[in-house]
Amino acid sequence: MIEIKQLTKLYKTKHQQVQAVDDISLNINKGEIFGVVGYSGAGKSTFIRLINRLEEPTSGTIKINDKDITTMAQSKLRKERQKFGMIFQHFNLLWSRTIYDNIAFPLEIAGVPKNKRKEKVLELINLVGLSGREKAYPSQLSGGQKQRVGIARALANDPDVLLCDEATSALDPETTDDILDLLVSINKKLGLTIILITHEMHVIQKICHRVAVMEKGKVVETGNVLEVFVKPQSKTTKRFVQQLNPLEQQQEAIQSFINSRDDSEVIKLHFIGNSTRRALISEISKKYDVDINILQGSISPTQEGAYGTLFFEINGQKDVIHDAIKYIQASGVEVEVLKHVE
Ligand SMILES: Nc1ncnc2c1ncn2[C@@H]1O[C@H](COP(=O)(O)OP(=O)(O)OP(=O)(O)O)[C@@H](O)[C@H]1O
């Protein structure tokens, strides 16, 4: 649906040049939630603003449904921009207008007649869960409610794509989760394609189907969320993933445990998708004459399924342990032997 090829943005100031977006090529599919994550200065804001040409690209192409918007004349672009809704970190609401009037504003600009406008605004207010607050002003709302208004306003012209520019970064964790749930329900209900940028891996884990990791203007890694979380390739991605997984930060604790034992094997299992539902430990303890001591475990849900890790110590005869490990491997779960007994 969206095809981005060799997209580049070079900012030139008097004293320096900044390559904010550097040769990015990627495709975004219709109906998916696509996340872009990166540290501050990676070029995320520039990238998302290039997609609807709020920023002019230095070079490269952006095609939406095979239409190249990078070469489009301004008059045509204005119409094409209605296919994009956008929400912002600081909401960008009109403070002197009521909630109702904020949401009606893009419809007024698009020349929608008053009675149709009313119908649409009330439908949107209901969709974002703000019924009864039509006459309130933005200053009377909480941060989460303000973002709900932002979302309703962004959806007023029935866009195909919703661009989210750090939409939850100004919100507390609980409100962030509520807004993310709302975005998922809108994605499902309306089949809306969502592109979001964030510096929080939690946001990617919770709602995205695919992710691109940005660093110094480049995409250093891209893939399905589950794949990227389970097997991060680049150093930057590994750092992001570790932030989310407290167990990864506790590797030292496991290591010191391993060092203190000399008569047992220590195993780490990587569960992905359906395998997270298998009662593997219980299966092997019934099937084989081994003793198992569970050390640590975690499970994390994503839109594409869950993934998890489990550390355990296993005792028994060498060949029986070997068979038990073979059994686990045959079930499709990845086994890492952290400590092997000779
Ligand atoms: N209008 C501009 N003029 C010059 N340089 C700019 C401009 N906008 C952004 N930059 C530079 O481009 C680089 C990427 O900035 P950008 O805001 O896109 O990154 P970001 O990943 O969104 O970071 P943040 O989350 O901190 O906004 C930075 O080095 C920034 O200083």
UniProtKB/TrEMBL annotation:
<keyword id="KW-1003">Cell membrane</keyword>
<protein>
    <submittedName>
        <fullName>D-methionine transport system ATP-binding protein</fullName>
    </submittedName>
</protein>
<keyword id="KW-0029">Amino-acid transport</keyword>
<keyword id="KW-0472">Membrane</keyword>
<comment type="similarity">
    <text>Belongs to the ABC transporter superfamily.</text>
</comment>
<dbReference type="GO" id="GO:0016887">
    <property type="term" value="F:ATP hydrolysis activity"/>
</dbReference>
<dbReference type="InterPro" id="IPR018449">
    <property type="entry name" value="NIL_domain"/>
</dbReference>
<keyword id="KW-0813">Transport</keyword>
<keyword id="KW-0067">ATP-binding</keyword>
<dbReference type="Pfam" id="PF00005">
    <property type="entry name" value="ABC_tran"/>
</dbReference>
<dbReference type="GO" id="GO:0005886">
    <property type="term" value="C:plasma membrane"/>
</dbReference>
<dbReference type="InterPro" id="IPR045865">
    <property type="entry name" value="ACT-like_dom_sf"/>
</dbReference>
<keyword id="KW-1278">Translocase</keyword>
<keyword id="KW-0547">Nucleotide-binding</keyword>
<dbReference type="InterPro" id="IPR003593">
    <property type="entry name" value="AAA+_ATPase"/>
</dbReference>
<dbReference type="InterPro" id="IPR027417">
    <property type="entry name" value="P-loop_NTPase"/>
</dbReference>
<dbReference type="InterPro" id="IPR017871">
    <property type="entry name" value="ABC_transporter-like_CS"/>
</dbReference>
<dbReference type="InterPro" id="IPR003439">
    <property type="entry name" value="ABC_transporter-like_ATP-bd"/>
</dbReference>
<dbReference type="InterPro" id="IPR041701">
    <property type="entry name" value="MetN_ABC"/>
</dbReference>
<dbReference type="Pfam" id="PF09383">
    <property type="entry name" value="NIL"/>
</dbReference>
<dbReference type="GO" id="GO:0006865">
    <property type="term" value="P:amino acid transport"/>
</dbReference>
<dbReference type="InterPro" id="IPR050086">
    <property type="entry name" value="MetN_ABC_transporter-like"/>
</dbReference>
<feature type="domain" description="ABC transporter">
    <location>
        <begin position="2"/>
        <end position="241"/>
    </location>
</feature>
<dbReference type="GO" id="GO:0005524">
    <property type="term" value="F:ATP binding"/>
</dbReference>
